[in-house]
Amino acid sequence: MFYHVKELQYNAKPERPDPVYAKKLQEILGGQYGEMTVMMQYLFQGFNCRAEQKYRDMILDIGTEEIAHVEMIATMIAQLLDGAPAKEQEEAAKDPAVEAVLGGMNPQHMIVSGLGATPTDSVGYPWNSRYTIASGNLLADFRANLNAESQGRLQVVRLYEQTNDPGVRDMLSFLIARDKMHQNQWMAAIEELEQQQGEVVPSTFPKNLEKQEVAYSFMNFSEGKESAKGRWASGMSMDGQAEFEFDESPKPMGQIPILNPSPNYVHGTPIPGQLPPGTKAAEYEQQNQMNDGGPH
């Protein structure tokens, strides 16, 4: 059960309207790594969690906090759009760089949402549930969560650098700090799960069913051997089960693929000499001659 508290988790008070920046801020609301994504990702991971109760509780705690972040950013966007007249777009166009990249304010903020936030990214692309990951394997999911928080924090930091509004920066500084905590949180949970089940996901697949001869081999598929200098090419593997090997010139291990002819009902390209059903040999030969520009 959820209930709404009227106060925001943290202040979202810009010093002045800025419709062009409101367009930028849409990225951390409805973009691939925005707050809507992590909100839905964590909530569904929590709803579907079949593991130890502490994990479900932790995931839903942070998922619920992300709802608050969505509200904060939406509120900030709405205030940045306060009193934004159509001429703001023309004013932004005076700066060639701004015009080239942004084209002024998002017209949908005026036309569609009535000076409010929308569930879209900074170029107006609608938020998509395919951004989210909830696989049922907590170690796999927590690694995806760490990536989401890393990318999200990076984007908020970049947005911080693009405004001098103290109120906007104040809210962003809060989000940056919370993203730091969330990264630390997921790293702690990942470490705990790795200690319990190992580093490779999933840990439940039988080892004897893997092709062990390639399980720890780094294959060099480029000119030179620069990649051999990395931690991934020599020494003990990260799961502690074997030594990494560097395969300088990997050889093909499979067959030359030759597919069966397509059945007649597909009407694909016939193999030379194979007549389409119902076509007489003379007609087929004549057709070939016409197509090839002369007799065979």
Features:
mainly alpha; metal ion binding; 10 helices; 2 domains; 296 residues; two-stranded parallel sheet
Please give a structural write-up.
The protein is mainly α and 296 residues long. The chain folds into two domains: 179 residues, Ferritin, core subunit, four-helix bundle (Ferritin), CATH 1.20.1260.10; 41 residues, no CATH class. Helices cover 46% and strands 2% of the residues. It contains ten helices and two strands. A two-stranded parallel sheet has the order 1-2. Helix 1 runs antiparallel to helix 4, helix 3 packs antiparallel against helix 8 and helix 8 packs antiparallel against helix 9. The model has no long low-confidence stretch (mean pLDDT 89). GO terms for molecular function: metal ion binding. Belongs to the manganese catalase family. It holds the Pfam family Mn_catalase.
